[in-house]
Amino acid sequence: MNLLLLLPRFSLWWVSISLLFTVTIAQDSPLITRISFGSCANQSAPQPIWEAINKFDPQLFIWMGDNIYGDIRKPIKVIGKERTFGPWRNSPRFIPSSEEEMKLRYAKAKSNPGYSRLKRNAKVIGTWDDHDFGLNDAGKEFDHKVTNQRLMLDFLDEPLDSPRRKQAGVYASYTFGPTNRKVKVIVLDTRYHRDPLRSDGSILGDTQWTWLEEELRGQRSEITIIGSSVQVISNLSATTGPLFYMESWGRFPKERKRLFKLISDTKRNGVIFISGDVHFGEITRYDCAVGYPLYDVTSSGLVQSVEKVFPRPLRFIVRLLFWYTPSTMRVINDNCKFKACTYGQSNFGAISIDWNANPITIRLEIRDVNGFAVLGTNVSLSELQARGSNSPTNPPTKGKSQRYCTLEVELPGTKRYRLAVLIYFTIAVLAMAFVGLIIGVVLMITACVYKNKLD
Ligand SMILES: *[C@@H]1O[C@H](CO)[C@@H](O)[C@H](O)[C@H]1NC(C)=O
Ligand SMILES: *[C@@H]1O[C@H](CO)[C@@H](O)[C@H](O)[C@H]1NC(C)=O
Ligand SMILES: *[C@@H]1O[C@H](CO)[C@@H](O)[C@H](O)[C@H]1NC(C)=O
């Protein structure tokens, strides 16, 4: 042990971790107090966010998907021979890359100096989402999945003899920390077995469900972090439709119910979800699913973000629209940088656990490129314990919406669809103004011509 103490801190960490995994006897694993995570990292763009992540000094970093952008995105074209957009499109907007191209992109991501530094100081684990699975919005039908699983596990330096390389999908679980202070991290694969969107079929597939049940029934851990590439709690599609829809567990209502029921049935306490995918940060909470509040901390993206799509002077509009779109699950508090309590610039997730506090507290945060918290909430571990029954703690009274309990789809229509109404109304007014303008111009020209004739 004395010899080990001479090694730098990270090596000591690695030695303990490898011991934990190769020799599965009870081993004192280091106490985990800082975990960070992130998603949506365009390997070809600058990635200044790593500096802030390194400054947070996490012991563990979890990739939440779109770790690279592996597929090829064609420009939006509504006219011409190759139309990639609109109901009349005749050509896909996204196409998969070759294996060689995927390798090049992973190599680029892996060689980023900021990320390399993180890898030397922290354990890095993770899952994937659609763009590193290999194709936008793809699921089980995607035929590059076997090859791409190998490339993804290479990127994560998964040992060659790891069972994870022999299974169908990249789901995995890890346990850290000493007895009575254990943190279990489960990363799900929401791509490999996923049925088509709008099928209300399965996200995880039978084998992964069986595995997840064993993991949740298995050894006790004080905190269990479940990583899902797509959001679990927020169902923004319910309030942004029919304008646009996003991928989420909400789009697979039966599968989502099954997940909550499994957490209840296995009596697993201390579960916290983390997610990515949507290009903005958000913390949501659902109190009526299991016997205690379920949090979902969404960090997206490390690079890609909704606000960057707009020129700087117009970015306030994005925040205004976020604020205007109703949400029943979003955590709204004084810790938010913006009133909407979403964050649409590059960000990462930061979880800090204070094991010495009484009760033990967990700080859930979204931090910006400078490392400042832009969203945050403190949760005490004692809140995350089921109290007897599985039934909702306070079922909402009919007709009244209750924060953290009412589903978005149960909102009254006037509230639920107010974003769509606003957008359609604006488009109608603009269209009418345009038609009015044309009519005006035509009338003026005719009047002039008529006048000239008379003269
Ligand atoms: C990634 O970044 C590069 C360079 O800025 C850009 O050309 C490319 O379109 C980006 N890809 C995506 C998927 O945004
Ligand atoms: C989420 O919203 C979609 C779109 O409105 C809806 O079809 C689905 O049932 C919702 N899911 C849940 C769990 O409310
Ligand atoms: C949350 O916890 C942190 C320490 O982890 C503390 O500094 C902060 O004041 C707490 N915030 C609130 C709102 O309780």
List keywords for this structure.
disordered N terminus, Purple Acid Phosphatase, chain A, domain 2, binds 2-acetamido-2-deoxy-beta-D-glucopyranose, PhoD-like_sf, 15 strands, alpha/beta, seven-stranded mixed sheet, globular, PhoD-like phosphatase metallophosphatase domain-containing protein, 455 residues, six-stranded mixed sheet, signal
Determine the fraction of residues in helical runs and give it as a percent range: 25-40%
Overall shape: globular
Radius of gyration: 25 Å
| Helix and strand run | HHEHEEEHHEHHEEHEHHEEEHEEEEHH
Q: What is the CA-CA span between the terminal residues?
A: 107 Å
Report what the structure shows.
By secondary structure, the protein is α/β, with parallel strands linked by helices. It has two domains: about 375 residues, Alkaline phosphatase D (PhoD) (Purple Acid Phosphatase, chain A, domain 2), CATH 3.60.21; about 40 residues. About 30% of the residues lie in helices and about 15% in strands. It has 13 helices and 15 strands. A seven-stranded mixed sheet has the order 6-7-8-9-11-10-12. The protein has a six-stranded mixed sheet with strand order 5-2-1-13-14-15, with helices on one face. Strand 13 and strand 14 form a beta hairpin. Helix 3 runs parallel beside helix 5 and helix 4 packs parallel to helix 7. The longest helix is centred in the last third of the chain and has 37 residues. The protein is globular and about 100 Å long. The N terminus is likely disordered. Bound molecules: 2-acetamido-2-deoxy-beta-D-glucopyranose (NAG) (3 copies). The site of one 2-acetamido-2-deoxy-beta-D-glucopyranose (NAG) has 5 residues, from strand 13 and strand 14. Pfam families: PhoD. It comes from Arabis alpina (Alpine rock-cress). Keywords: Membrane, Signal, Transmembrane, Transmembrane helix.
